[in-house]
Each structure stands twice: as C-alpha cells, then as structure tokens.
Amino acid sequence: MSEFNYKSNRLHVENVAINAIQQSIPTPFYVYSATMIENNFLSLQSRLSDLNHLICFAVKANSNQAVLRTLAALGSGADVVSLGELKRALHAGIHAQKIVFSGVGKTAKEIEYAIEQGIFQFNVESVAELHNINAVALKCNKKAHIAIRINPDVAVDTHAKITTGSAENKFGISYQHALDTFVLADSLPGITVQGIHVHIGSQITDVTPFRAAFKRVADLYKQLETLGININVLDLGGGLGICYDPENDKLPNMNEYRQIIEDELSQFNCKYIVEPGRSLTADTGCLVSTVIYDKLGSDRNFLIINAAMNDFARPSLYDAYHRISPVIESNKPRKKYDIVGPVCESGDTFAVARTLPELESGDLVVIRDCGAYGAVMSGTYNTRPLIAEVMVKGDQFAVIRERQSLDDLINLDQIPNWLISST
Ligand SMILES: *Cc1c(COP(=O)(O)O)cnc(C)c1O
C-alpha cells in the first residue's frame, strides 16, 4: 500500500505533508517512507516464508545509511558491488555473513577487504576474477566462499540497458563454460565453492523468464553433483519490477515467482539468496521539486523545475517513465506540459506531454517512484550540488543526507602550486 496519498488536497508521505517538509528543507530533495520500505521487505519475506532464504538488498539501488539501517533492523542482508557499498552495508549494521559481493570488476584491494571482513560469498563473474580471489585468499591465509554467476542466456522483456542475462552482455560466465569454471574453482586451494548465481535483468514484470533461468541452474546443479561438487546456495539475483506507469505496467506475479522457485529448485534443499533492489525501495521515494518557470508556447508548454538530470538520471538515461504529480491538488484547468530541468542538455527532460492542472512558478511537484536508482545515480553536472534526502516515519521526518554546499563542492578541486605562483 502506498504511503503517498492526498489528504485535504495536500500530498502526504505517511502523516507528513510534503509542503510542511519543504518549509524547513529547500527543494529539490528526495523523500522516503520508512514504513513502505519496511512493508516491502516484510511482504517479500512472507512470500518466501518456509523457504530457507536470505534477502540481500541490492545496495546500489539506494545506499543511504538510514535506508540500509531500516532494512538491517528487519534482518536484511546486502548485495554490494564495490568496496564503498561494502563499507556502507557494514557501517549500517549489516553483518558480514549476510553480505554477497557481486560485480564484474572487483579489484584485489576490494577482494582483500571483503575476505578480511568474512563476507558470506563472492559472486564470481570471470575466470580471471576467480584466479585473483584465489590469490588474495591464499595471501590472507583464508578461504573465499564463492558462487559463480552463470549467464543463462534468457531474453527478458525490459530496457536494453538493464537486461543482463542474455549471451551478448558482459555479465556472468556463459552457460557453456559454466561447468568447466566450477571444476576449475573447485581445484583452487583458496576457494570454497558453495553456490550458483543468476541475475537476469531489472524491472522484470513478467516472471516467466525466471523459469528458463532456474531450469538452467537446476541442470547445472545436477551436473555438478555427479562431479562431486556440492552446491548449497542458490543465489537467484534480483530484478523484480514495480509499476511505474499504472496505465501500462503490471506488477510481477509473486505467487507465480514463488511457484517457479519451488517447481524448479526446491528439490535441492539449498539456501536461497534473493537480491532485490528496485522492488524494495523504488516506490518508497519521490523527488520533490519546485517549478521555476512555466513557459507557454504555441506548440508546447514547458515546466522548468529546479531538479535536473544530474539529480535524477533515469528519464534521460533509460527513457524511464515516472509519474509526476502536483503537491497541492487543484481544480485549475488542465494543460499539457513537457517537464524539464535547468541543465543545458535537451536530454534533461523528465516527461513529455504530461497533463497536469495548471502550475506556475513556485508550485511544488513530485516525481514518483524515485526510491531506487535515484539519489545513488546523481552527480553534480552544471555545478549543481548533491541534493538532500529526507526520511519520514509516521508523523516524524528527518534529513538523512544534508544537501551538499556549493563551497564543499567547489573546494573538492585543488589548484596546483605552479598555477598559483604563476598568477
Ligand atoms: C542490480 C543488481 C541487483 C538488483 O537489481 P534490481 O532490479 O534492483 O532488483 C541484484 N543483483 C545484481 C547482481 C545486480 O547487479
């Protein structure tokens, strides 16, 4: 259930009116509902109940400490893809034994830190990486526990930039080479083979491709068993979608998802890991922004808002659809608007030809479903400082990341001495 609702014409997050937040925190900012994050986690957990499982939240979707702490308190683990994310997860109180480390380019330094911390599992993506993990583990006098990510070569109906499980992308070991790679891994003294990993893409709303992927996992499991390589962890990846556009998107059928896991994999008595990112946090956040100008033309009307592509990249990066709503509901006549940011790029467009009640300078709008791949993908293009993040719980709200100051941003740069002395 959404915690973003209009009460007396004013959009609320839980029991807090967005325009009340905006009185103390200048826009643009992200705002998250802690209750929704909790509910999303608990709902997935209950879907998977009776299965021996661990939910490892994909930290890349939203790495704010308060968000991670909210999930950690419910027992969540973490799927991390960099040293930075690993440190964030540990710092938020997620136990190392609940952390899996994914990603195609783990460096020796990252591997060493993860081994020293005693993480649960590396998800290995290449033979070169396997050798590197082995070497680092031997140097540390430890064994690294690994799963090998296989590329099951299944097509997923999602945006080309977020499909990961077909043969042409960089992720995982091709299915044909999987068996050999497991045999190699099993022979390395610094490695303990424990799992098979698949992750086939993101924003998946039709769960049927999971069946094809999990069938391949099951086949591989059996082949490994005959070779005496025992697998006890099946990491099923993330990728479950959300409904960004109520007119066109459907939610993944979670009964069916669970049924697919049972049908294809429950014969093996393994521990399951799932790595959801988007489905736990996307619908729990929105980006609040103020209209700077309305610009009415004969052809098109523009709303120029004070958030931009550097703050929220998904529309410009993936042509992603996001609902945009006014913070105050009104009966004003409706108009069609292109909603754009101030950055000097045509790609700085959040929506085209959206019908909204007439809005003008100073009015607030929200871009919905920004709780995943929102703040984490932001940058400072056009010298726009990173924006604030706010969390609401019940009738309380708090800043969970301060807006970066312009001085802080500019002072990251340094002028070489030889330039100073020459002026
Ligand atoms: C990105 C990613 C996830 C999370 O994907 P969502 O679509 O956000 O659920 C999980 N596992 C791996 C390996 C990933 O790269």
Question: Rg, please?
Answer: 23 Å
Outline the low-pLDDT stretches.
none
Proportion of strand residues: 25-35%
Biggest sheet statistics: 9 strands, mixed
- What is the subunit organization of this protein? single chain
Number of domains: 2
CATH architectural group of the largest domain: Alpha-Beta Barrel
Summarize the amount of helix as a percent range: 25-40%
Please state the structural category.
alpha/beta
What number is the mean pLDDT? 95
In CATH's first tier, which class of the largest domain applies? Alpha Beta
Shape: globular
**Bound ligands:** pyridoxal-5'-phosphate
Number of strands: 21
Instruction: Fill in the CATH topology of the largest domain.
Output: TIM Barrel
CATH superfamily of the largest domain: Alanine racemase
**Count of alpha/pi helices:** 13
Give the distance, in angstroms, between the N- and C-terminal Cα atoms.
61 Å
Please characterize this protein's 3D structure.
With 423 residues, this protein is an alpha/beta fold. The chain folds into two domains: 4-31 and 282-410, Lyase, Ornithine Decarboxylase, Chain A, domain 1, CATH 2.40.37.10; 34-281, Alanine racemase (TIM Barrel, Alpha-Beta Barrel), CATH 3.20.20. Helices cover 29% and strands 26% of the residues. The chain contains 13 helices and 21 strands. Strands 4, 14, 15, 16, 17, 18, 19, 20 and 21 form a nine-stranded mixed β-sheet that branches. β1 (4-7) and β2 (10-13) form a beta hairpin. α5 packs across α6 (127-139), α7 crosses α8 and α8 packs parallel to α9. It starts with a strand and ends with a helix. 45% of the residues are buried. The model has no long low-confidence stretch (mean pLDDT 95).
